[in-house]
Amino acid sequence: MEMLHQPGEIIAERYCIIGTLGQGGIGITYQAEDIQKHQQVALKALALRRMTEWKVLELFEREAKILAQLNHPRIPQYIDYFQIDTESDRAFYIAQQLAPGKSLAVLVDNSWKPDESEVKRLAIQVLEILVYLHSLTPSVIHRDIKPQNILRDEKGQIFLVDFGAVQDTYQNTVTGGSTVVGTYGYMAPEQFRGQAVLSTDLYGLGTTILFLLMQKSPADLPQRKLKIDFRSHVRISQDFADWLEKMIEPVIEDRFPGCNEALAVLRGEQAITNYFSQKHRRPKNTIISLTETDQNLVIEIPPIWLTTPHSRLFALIPIIWNGFFLLLLWIIAASNLSLSFSGILFLIVFGSIGISIIGIFLFSAAFRTRIEINQQHFQLKRWFLSICYQQVQANTLDITEIKLNPIGLKMNKQPITVCLLRIKLFKHRFGTFLMQSEKEWLMGEISHFISHSAG
């Protein structure tokens, strides 16, 4: 691309060109000095007569508009947007603070080889920036996360630059924007269709991490079933590999639903198993009713009674306990034994426990559960016979954990589990007597629905 300005040239009587920082499809970025404030800036320039289509100017103006709204310590601060007319051309400019440090691409070219811990620290910082961008109203999608656009200073601080491909979700959902932007190798598959969602930036970060670990472009890595096959080519921990694989899933629904979830797993605050990559099939002959629409998921679990192996196994506990108690009473009566106070107390306690076990079993086997979830609200209700004894209401976003939790017992050498939903500090369990396939199916459906709604 032809240079617009040379070192020493003064732009708008304020910015003195020092050199070139980089150039791309929609402009050239110069290093310049703001001679009024005596500070260095990044000055991005776009010439009208060098444009091949008006869409380029639209992207440039959108970048300026969104940058003016951003306020984050790791995003260079917006300074100015202006244009200059000459006899033969019109040029547009965006001025920003100059971010310290060098791009990850330059660092790798200079033989920088970060280890796993350093890459994790870097990823956490980028995710924190993306959390900020995605939490704006409307959410801002960078769409061009790559090594050239991430800067690292000498202290290890990370900065995100070049918002030339930026898109807000209003633009994406209302006008149906279809411009293909991004960089080959770091673009999520949906970007080739002109689409972008919040997890699009996660894909770019995941491929950037692959570049750091393997010192080569993700475009040069082998693929299997449209997915980058990296595990056999890099030495990292199993947990980090699982997390990274989730980041670069080619199917949107199989990635983390958002940056908060990816960040929580990377920090060890949540387990990656909370995010099921695929839905389990509906078990045959299940008595569970599940109704799902784009906006709502309703699950009805009727009383189990003795319809499953787990419920029949648990039914043996009160039978054995109370059978032994009745046998003990018969022996005492048949032997005409006189009991001491401690003996009588033992029988009372033993019998009370037996009655409690019967109550717990009948209560668990007879209750009905209803779960209703939409994009905003979650509700769990339980009935014992016709009496509603529990009702939980919360914000869907407050659900922080969805998993099967072992209860310490086994059946056919397999652990018996219970469905668990964590809502902030509270854990809600259900489905102990369901078949394992039913529990896996339910947890997969709930996780998939929440992930799909959030994404």
UniProtKB/TrEMBL annotation:
Pfam families: Pkinase (PF00069). Signal peptide: none annotated. Keywords: ATP-binding, Kinase, Membrane, Nucleotide-binding, Serine/threonine-protein kinase, Transferase, Transmembrane, Transmembrane helix. Its EC number is 2.7.11.1. GO terms for molecular function: protein serine/threonine kinase activity. The chain crosses the membrane at residues 313-332, 344-367. SMART domains: S_TKc. It catalyses: L-seryl-[protein] + ATP = O-phospho-L-seryl-[protein] + ADP + H(+); L-threonyl-[protein] + ATP = O-phospho-L-threonyl-[protein] + ADP + H(+). It comes from the Bacteria. It is an enzyme of class 2 (transferase). Residues 15-276 form the Protein kinase domain. Gene3D superfamilies: Phosphorylase Kinase, domain 1, Transferase(Phosphotransferase) domain 1. InterPro entries: Kinase-like_dom_sf, Prot_kinase_dom. This is non-specific serine/threonine protein kinase. It comes from Anabaena lutea FACHB-196. The lineage of its organism: Bacteria, Bacillati, Cyanobacteriota, Cyanophyceae, Nostocales.
